[in-house]
Amino acid sequence: MILRRIGLLVLAGVLALAGSAALAPALATPAHADTPTVLRVGLTENIDTLNPFLAVFSSSSNIGRMMYEFLTTYDAKTETPVPSLASSWSHSADGLTWTFTIRGNAKWSDGVPITAHDAAYTFNLMMTNTAAATANGNFVANFASVSAPNDTTLVIKTKAPQATMLALDVPIVPQHIWSKVGDIAKYTNLPTPGHPIVGSGPFILTDYKAGQYVTLSANKNYWRGAPKIDELQYVQFDDVNGAYAALVKGDIDLLNGVTPTQFNTLKHTKNIATNQAEGNRFVDMIINSGTATNAGVPIGDGNPNLKDLKLRQAIAEAINPADLVKNVYGGYAQPGTSYIPPLFATYHWQPTGSQLRSFNPTAANAALDAAGYPRGADGIRMGKDGKPLNLTLIGAADQVQDGQEAQYVKGWLADIGIGVNVQLVSSDKLNDLTNAGDFDLAFSGYGVDPDPDYVLSIQTCAQRPNAQGLGGTTESFFCNAQYDSLYAQQLSEMDPVKRANIIKQMEQVFYQQVPEVTLLYKDNLEAYRSDRWAPFTVQPQPGGSIMFQNGYWSYYEATPLAGDPGGSGGSGTGLIIGIIAAVIVIGGGAIWLLRRRRVATDDRE
After folding, report:
1. Tag placement on the chain: N or C end, fewer CB within 10 Å?
2. pLDDT tens digits for 364-374?
3. CA distances from 140 to 120, 137, 156, 221, 452 (A)
4. pLDDT over threshold 80, residue 464
5. Distance (Å, whole) CA 542 – CA 604
6. Backbone angles phi, psi at 138, to 5 degrees
7. What is the pLDDT of residues 97-120, one digit of tens each?
8. What is the pTM of this model?
9. Could you tell me if 149 and 101 are in contact, meaning their C-beta atoms sit under 8 angstroms apart?
10. What are all long-range contacts of 465-470, with beta carbons under 8 Å and residues at least 24 apart?
């Protein structure tokens, strides 16, 4: 979505925005005889797909967690794995065979019993269908076989011991529905007349309008018991300013990713409660060090000079994350160093001494001089290809921080003789460009799960896509034999301490090769209507997030306060007026494109 800009065409932009908002069912008069209990969540991220095998944006995978259970889930307090569809498990002495007992009281939303055959079907589909492995293929890459000897027993045999067997973030789908799907890569998984979505989670998708809303209804057959609310509605906004205005007015109940200025205001706003959680996401700038398919065939149009490690190191040394934390994020972030955020202390590697890159443009200039990048008469250095060293930095036009960060990066790189052409495009376009390798520098980022295997996997050679763009999810197209070897080692290491040490070695290799620069770890800034809702369950506890959890606890346990059974009851007209006011008064804004993990420039809230 392209941000509507304020200028000579203000009226046209306002009318377009108002028309979009008017279509959202979250704003329509309920058709039920009794007013349903509705939790309305402001969504300022795009949704790539609601097909769980393909979804990589955080917004999409978060919705998927509401619809489909995993074998295990993460405890709300500790984020350690706890039973979900699997009520218990065991493994052989050699760690190669895992046996899961599928609970007998679970049903799909259409009343059909959930069995081990559904789980076996899901995993086998991912093992044999390239498209089905797109989002979560790393979890089954080491599987040798998956079988269901009976309705309650699932047996998974692995090629080597696998440390992530209790953290398989794979949505289990109903075999009786998905076995009829012809082409997984093209399947939208949207409800159609006579063909409702069938799921196993606390909520089931019942309505969707791209760019406008997603409606999920409580699953009355949910094995834990139905949620306390009748509907969960995601109302999409073109920018955080419109969503902020809707929250203050009362047209939505919950919002994530407010700006630091808005958060400071909301702290003192009547009927609003705020939540500042230490972020599990990193924000980074990826560098095109050589994009290729998983077969090693080069793709994209990245500047060939960026294959030079010395140049990438100089770029990293010229960037000052502390300035971004202070001036762009208002102090609601931590300067970035290594790949995994410090929130996950067990796995976070902190470079020290001579390994630590510090902001040092003088040293960066000296390094480029010594590496053979002479300055031209205009101050721009010449590349090894004989051309001026001008790089294109792409970011999202609908992401406020991208534009601000880009100006800092442009200035820093100018100080070391590198020209930067900033291009701000739509979030969807940015995603397309980075996936195709058509970039020099690009803003990105990912969320990290309690078990970091997923974000570790997306930097392996195998996770690069095939020639058709399917088969894996990569961020930077990084491909390094030492990193891949360490990845295989950590996956097979069952000793938690030894595994953590291997992961830290991986972070060190990644840091030294500079396929990206980790800029910062941003706090999760959230707010909700405290006059309508009891305090939400956060994950982890204390100090965790409400939205975008590694689970569904905040929504499943959402409790409306007495006297407001319909959740946010603002009228559609009120929301449209609120959005128009926000556009006229505030102008500009941000869509925060979250990748599940990816902040492409998010995966950012």
Report:
1. N
2. 999 999 999 99
3. 12, 6, 10, 29, 15
4. yes
5. 23
6. -60, -30
7. 999 999 999 999 999 999 999 999
8. 0.82
9. no
10. 465/293, 465/294, 465/435, 466/130, 466/293, 466/294, 466/295, 467/293, 467/295, 467/297, 469/435, 469/436, 470/130, 470/131, 470/134, 470/185
